[in-house]
Records
---
Amino acid sequence: MPPDFNGLNEINRTLGTIMGKLDALGKEIGDIRDDMKDSEDKSDVSRATVHRRLDEVVTRTGYLESDMNTVKNDMKTVKTVTDEVTRWKQAGMGALAVTGIGSSALTAIILSYWAEIVKILRGG
């Protein structure tokens, strides 16, 4: 009996199709791996950027805390000076009030004795 080449051809064709599909599948898997690698690289860069910016925020927050402590200490000094100036102002207003009352009293005395003062100054 002659060999059945039709059956062998069919098997060969089927194996060729399977091999072609396996090659295509291998290429797709390779492409997926490349895409995943690219995605991982981008994610690494993104995470590094986030960490760098977070470090910057931490550094800036430290500077702000330091500056706020300086401002608080300066405000204590300013408050002390402001309180002292307020006391001076109150004392000055009190002195002005006393001076005003004294001047008013002196003016009242001069006006009530004006005629006698003029008479004394004229020699008489």
---
Amino acid sequence: MTALYAGWILASWMGGRLQLESVHGGYFLPTVAGGFVASYAAATIGAIPLALGAFVVAAFFWLVFFTVIFARLAFRPSLPDPLVPTLAIMMAPPAVAAAAWFAINGEWPTESKTHSRRSP
């Protein structure tokens, strides 16, 4: 469902109805975070192929929406004061993506697996 919504938003934007001044971090919630949450949920119940599919779709939309939002922040006037807190939402996709990725792989990294220890 989130992929359909994200596709609809992108299609309307590509159709010339994009007002870059109206873009803000809140667009990540229904489009990107939903896909990563679905990926985490699918991995939790053991549906790994579905989890990977949801992860890839969410990662794609993350890249697209991040580019659009970053362009808005870089090339347009600053966000209105009521929308400034939506910038914090831009931190959600990496955190949820990490949780989903670790759920898909079945384990959280530990020190013994991430750092090799050599004997003197």
---
Amino acid sequence: MKAEDAQAVLEGLRPRLSECFAFVGMQDSRAYMRVEDREDPDRWAAVYTPGQGYFSVQTETTLTWDYVDDDASDEEVHAALSRLVSLAVSYVLGQGEEMRSRRLGFPSLRLHDDEGTVTLKLPMQEGLSFVLRRFRRS
């Protein structure tokens, strides 16, 4: 599946809820959907994919969960995007459980859906920056 096809899939998955607003587009050869809280547009989550192989959901706080399936069929791509859109909406609606790691205090977010539990974490670069900021304060 190409990014343009994924964009069409995301358009079809656009949530129609009064609590949130979603828009779909293309950026850096990737299809994306951004879901925002209508009352607080600074609270958002976005789903990204180049169309096949790599799927990601990210919050405004840079917490991220990535899903990789290089051999995904079109049906599997649709299912993966559907799940990520559901997770994005759950986050925007405040249905996640915020957590911190015990030793370094890394932030993470646990989201639940019909398929199980997903934990969004800081990307490696953000995690290293987080640790360096903590040590500088000490």
---
Amino acid sequence: MSKLVTIRSFGDYFSAHVTQQSLDAYGIPSTLLNDNMGTVFMPLAVGGIKLQVREEDETRALSLLDQLENKADAEQDTPAYWEEQAEGLDPDNRVCIYCGSKNTTIVDASRKTFLGQQVFRIAPALFDKEKWHCFHCGKDF
């Protein structure tokens, strides 16, 4: 049986489980130690909720978590990720349903091509839904 090593400790249940699921999504099995000790003070009393992986997966898991954390940090640096940075944006912008950013714009895909223009002129009711694009996460909604 492989030896388990602790790669992270958490003070809250939610962060521990989200991180564990991230490892699982990339095929790295892990376990949480002390995750059922309560939700507020008990995990802190026993040193936190410990995320453990097999010793042979330690380097890969740490590298993956570093990549994911760096990506999250970079995303937080994009304009209007935080609510207090949104004052320069149009107040009518929709909030992205994927990431919560207000750095969005309306997209009129029906008029981008000649064919789209012709179809829009014939049957505008088919295109009455607004399409939005998020500059933060790059998704359309």
